[in-house]
Design a protein that fits this description.
The complex is a heterodimer. By secondary structure, chain A is mostly helical. Chain A has two domains: 1-75 and 84-173, no CATH class; 189-315. Chain A is 73% helix and 1% strand. Chain A has a two-stranded antiparallel ribbon with strand order 1-2. The longest helix of chain A is centred in the last third of the chain and has 24 residues, at 292-315. The radius of gyration of chain A is 24 Å and the shape is globular. In chain B, α7 (97-113) packs antiparallel against α8, α7 runs antiparallel to α12 and α8 crosses α9. Chain B is mostly helical. Chain B has two domains: 10-58, no CATH class; 65-228. The model of chain B has no long low-confidence stretch (mean pLDDT 89). The chains are: A mainly alpha, B mainly alpha. At the A-B interface, α1, α3, α4, α5 and α6 of A face α1, α2, α3, α4 and α5 of B.
């Protein structure tokens, strides 16, 4: 592969290392040394993760969690342009300022469709296993280049602004990563099997409506706990969907699967465990309540879950 | 059916629920749940640390979606992108917060349904453009917008992106979730056409749009009441 995902691990590692150095030299940060150590550990895991013994990486992850958990990750000071200067530059650049923001999705889409499977000298141009991610990385680099050219700012200023946003998100940035680790550990420890056992052993599914409701609500609840519909689907489909709905009540398997996954997504809307969709955006939008996005989604998720149950109940023989 | 299933790993789930109910720091809750689950599955400490480390290295691709666009977006913000988005939407007389977000919901869901899931996203679209526009549309009509209402508008902008993405992408045949479902059903001896699964997603996708759009329509009323009070 010519452009592999490792290139972007390396770039993000350098960005995080720069954040660590800037944090250590920032007197405006009340906890600058622990903040610098936190980002330095994260940078090391990106720069050298694959060469590290897994036990060492595990220790570093625990250290990061303890630093973050006891308030050691704080935001520093950031020099921004004054309101007038910002409005003056917005007037001067006008709608051209939108261009780099649109470059990110456009390059991502063009690269991931047009350059998919393209080879040069028999090597893939873009990493086929991480196509969207690598395309997004190229889009972000292109957008940074266009933005620097447009505003006459240096790439270093881009790094400083990246640090400003990373500081704004803070420890919430690593929460999705740690939750993904917990999900893998749950799978290794057999949590899914235990949940499926509890559901099927203690609930009476003689009524077709109860069986449908248990399947959909179980899918949502399991996703609330795991934070990921992909973890819930095999458990609930294997425990209730296939043996009860398909084999006992002869439901259409395609409908059973589609509604099951959508019920899981209703759970995703309601859980802090899906941190990348629910908690990180709250930090990105400077919301004081870290559960504000979840609270905005629950009134959509619950009626939609009820609709799913009704669709599956009434259309299951189609 | 008496197969020996080890129920002890469920303690990890209990730690998560207790932690969130007690409002403990989420990162500490997660690391405590990792420890409890490991002990319950009778892993020793080196084995547990190695499992955590290997999993952490393996999932490094996850935060990239957030981290990659930050430098470019931060630079554009420095030079006034958010102010420009707010001012631009204030000039459109028909733009209300609700209508604007309903339009975004429609575009997000339809593009996700044809596989263009990267047309949105919180760092590259919601923070620099969608949320400032939604806030700007409300501010243009009601200059004395209260802070709680501002936060609610931003949270709804983020929620709209999520709803559009989740319930659009599952209608796309080549999406990962559809392929995952096909693989799992095949392992259980059921052969299902991915196209049928995608088509059966449409009733829910339409319902999701209707419910969220109705709530966004009501958001306009809430903004009006908030400013009248």
């Amino acid at each position: 592969m010519i452009v592999a995902v490792d290139l972007f691990y390396w770039l993000i590692g350098l960005l995080l290392a720069a954040v660590a150095v800037m944090a250590a030299r920032d007197p405006a940060n009340p906890r600058r040394w622990s903040t610098a150590l936190f980002w330095a550990l994260y940078a090391t895991l990106y720069l050298a993760g694959e060469h590290m013994p897994p036990t060492g990486a595990g220790l570093m992850m625990v250290a990061m969690a303890l630093i973050a958990g006891f308030g050691g990750v704080r935001a520093g000071g950031h020099a921004s342009l004054s309101g007038e200067a910002r409005e003056a530059s917005a007037r001067r650049l006008g709608h051209w300022l939108f261009l780099p923001a649109l470059v990110i999705p456009l390059v991502t889409i063009l690269f991931s469709t047009l350059l998919k499977g393209v080879r040069i000298d028999g090597r893939f141009l873009l990493d086929p296993a991480n196509l969207t991610l690598v395309s997004l990385g190229c889009g972000a680099l292109a957008a940074l280049a266009v933005a620097c050219w447009l505003t006459r700012a240096s790439p270093l200023q881009g790094v400083r602004e990246g640090r400003r946003l990373i500081d704004a998100i803070g420890w919430a940035l690593v929460l999705p990563h740690m939750l993904a680790v917990l999900g893998l550990l749950f799978a290794e420890a057999g949590v899914g099997k235990a949940v499926a056992h509890v559901v099927t052993a203690y609930v009476n599914m003689d009524s077709r409506f109860v069986a449908v409701a248990i399947y959909c609500i179980g899918m949502a609840l399991f996703t609330v706990v795991m934070g990921n519909g992909f973890a819930a689907f095999p458990v609930m489909a294997g425990g209730v969907g296939i043996p009860v709905l398909v084999h006992q009540y002869h439901a259409n398997p395609a409908l059973m699967a589609a509604i099951g996954m959508f019920s899981a997504y209703c759970g995703t809307l309601m859980t802090p465990m899906a941190a990348n969709f629910n908690i990180v955006p709250a930090a990105l939008l400077d919301l004081p309540d870290r559960n504000a996005v979840i609270k905005a989604q629950v009134p959509t998720a619950l009626p939609l879950l009820a609709v799913n149950i009704l669709i599956l109940y009434f259309l299951m023989y189609q | 059916m008496h197969i020996a299933v080890n129920l002890w790993p469920l303690l990890g789930v209990a730690v998560i629920i207790a932690g969130f109910l007690l409002r403990a720091h989420p990162v500490l809750v997660v690391i405590a749940a990792c420890g409890v689950t490991g002990v319950a599955a009778s892993m020793d400490v080196p084995h547990l640390l190695a499992s955590l480390g290997a999993a952490f290295i393996k999932t490094r691709n996850l935060p990239l979606i957030y981290l990659l666009p930050l430098a470019a977006i931060g630079l554009l913000e420095r030079f006034g992108l958010r102010e420009l988005a707010q001012a631009g939407v204030a000039r459109i007389a028909a733009a209300t917060t609700g209508r604007l977000l309903i339009f975004y919901l429609f575009v997000r869901e339809v593009t996700a349904a044809i596989g263009l899931t990267s047309l949105g996203g919180h760092p590259s679209m919601v923070r620099p453009l969608v949320a400032p526009m939604a806030e700007g549309a409300a501010e243009a009509r009601y200059p004395a917008l209260s802070d709680p209402m501002r936060y609610r508008i931003r949270a709804m902008a983020a929620a709209t992106d999520n709803v559009g993405l989740f319930f659009g992408e599952d209608v796309f045949v080549a999406f990962g979730a559809i392929l995952l479902m096909q693989t799992i059903l095949r392992a259980e001896g059921l052969e299902v056409d991915p196209l049928h699964m995608a088509l059966w997603g449409i009733p829910t996708a339409v319902s999701a749009f209707v419910i969220q759009a109705w709530r966004l329509h009501r958001l306009d009323d809430a903004i009006r009441r908030d400013s009248a009070a």
